[in-house]
Specification:
57% helix, 356 residues, alpha/beta, 8 strands, six-stranded mixed beta sheet
C-alpha cells in the first residue's frame, strides 16, 4: 500500500469517526429522554487558557448529583394549532393521538363554559402512561405540559422528569423533604414520574410510601396548577394505581403506548437518515426490515424507537468500516447506507447470539 493510498484511507476513517463521535456526544446529552425528546443544551467548550485544576473542578461539577430533569419554562403560550400539528406529525401513536385530541377538546369546552358562567366538571388531568420503553411517553408528557400551558390550565408549562431515585431518600424524614423540592420545581407544569411502580415495591421499611403520600397531598393542595403523570409498564402500573385508594381516586385517565410496528420503526429509521443527511438505498430496506423484526421479538431489550437509534449507530459503524477499505471516497459515498452495511450488523448479531 503506497503512502497516498494510506493517507486517503486514514482520511476516510477520520471523517467517519468524527461523524460517529458527534452522534455519540449528541445521544449522551439525550440520555434519559425518549426518542422524540429535545436534546439538552451542549456542554460549554473550555477555553484554551483553562488550567488543569479548573478542568478538574468542572469534571467534579459534571459528576455531581443533578436535580430532576426540568424543561425550560415557556416564555409565552404557543399556538395550539402548532402543537397539534407537532402531535400529528409523530410516527405511530394513533390511539394516544386520539386520546390527546379528545382531552384537548374537553378542556376547551370546559374553559368556554367558565367564560359563560356555567358550572364546570371537576376535571382530573392527572394521567397514567403505560407501555414499553421508547414508545414516546416522555415526549407526549412534554407536549401535554405545553398544551396545558397554551390552554391556560398551567401557568408555566415546564416538565419535571424524575424517577424513584429523585424522590426517595435513605433516612427517616428525608424523603418528604426531597419529594417536596421536586414538587415545588414542577408547580405550574407537569411532574412526570417514570417507573412510578418502584415507589411502593421496597417492603415495610421502605420510604417510597412517604413519597407517594407527599405527592398526593401536593396534587390536592395545588390542584389548579400541577399535573402529575406516572408512567411505566402496563401491568405494573395497573397494580401500582390499584394498590392505594388515593392513587385510584386521582388517576383515572389511562393512555397506553403500543409498541411500534416494523413499518413504523422503518419510518423512524428513514427520519434518522434524513436528519443526518444519509440516504438509505432501496436495496437496503428489505434486510433492514428483517433485522428490525428480529430485534422486535425481544421487545424488552430492543426498546422500540430507542432501539432504532442504537441500530442506526451500529450501521454507521459498519458503513465506516466499508468505506475505509475503498481506494477513494466521494461525498455521495459518505451519505449512502447500503444493504451490505445493514447485513453486516445482522451477521454480527447472529455471531453474538451464538457466543452467548
Amino acid at each position: 500500500m503506497d503512502r497516498d493510498e494510506r493517507r486517503r484511507k486514514d482520511q476516510i476513517i477520520s471523517e467517519q469517526m468524527e461523524v460517529i463521535r458527534t452522534m455519540a456526544e449528541h445521544n449522551l446529552r439525550r440520555m434519559g429522554t425518549d426518542f422524540w425528546g429535545t436534546p439538552a443544551p451542549a456542554a460549554p467548550t473550555p477555553s484554551k487558557s483553562s488550567a488543569p485544576e479548573n478542568d478538574a473542578r468542572e469534571m467534579e461539577k459534571s459528576q455531581a448529583v443533578r436535580p430532576p430533569k426540568q424543561e425550560e419554562e415557556q416564555a409565552a403560550p404557543e399556538k395550539l394549532e402548532d402543537l397539534l400539528s407537532e402531535l400529528d406529525g409523530y410516527t405511530g401513536l394513533q390511539a394516544v393521538k386520539r386520546e390527546v385530541h379528545d382531552l384537548i377538546d374537553l378542556a376547551k369546552v370546559e374553559a368556554l363554559r367558565r367564560e359563560h358562567g356555567l358550572p364546570t366538571a371537576d376535571l382530573s388531568l392527572h394521567m397514567v402512561f403505560s407501555g414499553s420503553p421508547g414508545t414516546g411517553k416522555t415526549t407526549i408528557a412534554r407536549l401535554m405540559a405545553r398544551i396545558y400551558h397554551t390552554l391556560g390550565i398551567l401557568s408555566k408549562g415546564q416538565l419535571v422528569e424524575v424517577d424513584r431515585s429523585g424522590l426517595v431518600a435513605g433516612y427517616v424524614g428525608q424523603t418528604a423533604i426531597k419529594t417536596k423540592k421536586v414538587v415545588d420545581a414542577a408547580l405550574g407544569g407537569v411532574l412526570f414520574i417514570d417507573e412510578a411502580y418502584a415507589l411502593n415495591g421496597g417492603g415495610e421499611n421502605d420510604f417510597g410510601q412517604e413519597a407517594i403520600d407527599t405527592i398526593l397531598k401536593a396534587m390536592e393542595d395545588h390542584r389548579d396548577d400541577l399535573v402529575v403523570i406516572v408512567a411505566g409498564y402496563e401491568e405494573l402500573m395497573e397494580r401500582f394505581i390499584h394498590s392505594n385508594p388515593g392513587l385510584e381516586s386521582r388517576f383515572n385517565r389511562f393512555l397506553h403506548f403500543a409498541d411500534y410496528t416494523a413499518e413504523e420503526l422503518l419510518a423512524i429509521f428513514r427520519m434518522q437518515c434524513e436528519k443526518g443527511c444519509y440516504i438509505l438505498e432501496p436495496e437496503a430496506e428489505a434486510p433492514l426490515r428483517s433485522l428490525l423484526e428480529r430485534r422486535m421479538a425481544d421487545a424488552a431489550s430492543f426498546g422500540n424507537a430507542r432501539g432504532v437509534r442504537n441500530l442506526f449507530e451500529q450501521i454507521l459503524v459498519r458503513q465506516a468500516g466499508r468505506l475505509a477499505g475503498q481506494a477513494s471516497v466521494n461525498r455521495e459515498d459518505l451519505t449512502r447506507i447500503t444493504a451490505a452495511d445493514v447485513e453486516a450488523v445482522g451477521r454480527a448479531n447472529d455471531l453474538e447470539a451464538k457466543e452467548r
